[in-house]
Amino acid sequence: xxxxxxxxxxxxxxxxxxxxxxxxxxxxxxxxxxxxxxxxxxxxxxxxxxxxxxxxxxxxxxxxxxxxxxxxxxxxxxxxxxxxxxxxxxxxxxxxxxxxxxxxxxxxxxxxxxxxxxxxxxxxxxxxxxxxxxxxxxxxxxxxxxxxxxxxxxxxxxxxxxxxxxxxxxxxxxxxxxxxxxxxxxxxxxxxxxxxxxxxxxxxxxxxxxxxxxxxxxxxxxxxxxxxxxxxxxxxxxxxxxxxxxxxxxxxxxxxxxxxxxxxxxxxxxxxxxxxxxxxxxxxxxxxxxxxxxxxxxxxxxxxxxxxxxxxxxxxxxxxxxxxxxxxxxxxxxxxxxxxxxxxxxxxxxxxxxxxxxxxxxxxxxxxxxxxxxxxxxxxxxxxxxxxxxxxxxxxxxxxxxxxxxxxxxxxxxxxxxxxxxxxxxxxxxxxxxxxxxxxxxxxxxxxxxxxxxxxxxxxxxxxxxxxxxxxxxxxxxxxxxxxxxxxxx
Length: 490
Known about the structure:
The chain is mainly α. The two termini are about 45 Å apart. The protein has helices at about 5, 10-20, 20-45, 45-50, 55-60, 60-90, 110-130, 130-140, 145-170, 175-205, 215-245, 250-270, 280-305, 310-315, 320-330, 335-360, 370-400, 410-430, 455-470, 470-480. Helix 6 (about 60-90) runs antiparallel to helix 8 (about 130-140).
């Protein structure tokens, strides 16, 4: 087997198309032209200082030139390139073109990794084109090499993250309405990401103090940032693989298993930070908040799925062990399966967070009672949103709404109900002299009022428990259908 046979086929195909693409060639020429014009403008603005020798002797022009090229590259790699990748991915999954997943024997992992590899190569290709300008900036003095490398690495990390984000949005956008909504969301998201990376990069370049990474705190901060970036990219990769997998396949176990592994790893890291004076208790709350948000999103997607199982999913169900079948019910694909898994993981996250906080001594920088109150607020917030999702799904069955409306809008109805539950209590009080909402039930931000946290949590937990009990019939039906198909007996 030759080396070419070992290359990802999707990467090879995309590379050939990229080399022949006029769009990529035009982008490269345009990048070099814009970079040349930008550097010329910077040099012309510094004409007087260059004649007197002030700019080169005192502070140099390296920082100005590097910052200019950095801004151009940030706009290209964090804004233009992800849109190009998303458009290509979305075109392959459109209704006008048959999805490649259904016409090839390649696995979804090969599809995603191949497209990601080509996108990363394109990013490095454009970055290598401006390396002479970076070298010129360093020769003109005033630029710290470590700061420039740090800013460039930040740009590359942001570009890889945006690639996965673009692939995710293109993979889930299978209808015209969803594409329009996701394009609007991507415009806002990419703009904020570009501004954030650009702002931090420029701040690093123009920082008075140089980076030495001689302090343990600097090394720890850098490692945490890299770990968060790796975790986010791995999570998006798993989600994209699940999104491009055919809906009839059992695509949930690998995704949920990966999320649970990341959940456990970051739980250990957050608990281990208890000895740090700066991050004391804060990492535990940050971990709990992030995980509850992720599991809530999973619950919304699961609630918007139609009930029932494909034969491919049922063929993997254990026909013998009831305990194994129960564990498979939680981890396998399915609407009720995903909702139960999200609920259990949310409760486990809150429980672990409370146990971790209560096992630690009080901090001098952040009192123990403060983090406990924050966790109580988070508990009420998570339970209330989960109750909304379960209630919306329950209404679809109780009132037979599935006969008139698709299950795909359950999440939209839940979001509208959450918004109404927060806004209506305040709208009723318009014109009155009170500063409190008319009622607190159903308000996800009721923890900001003067009502005790225990009362709010009790109301939210009771509502969620009642909804789960009323959904017992649907859960029982789903579990009864979740069994291995009977083999034909000759």
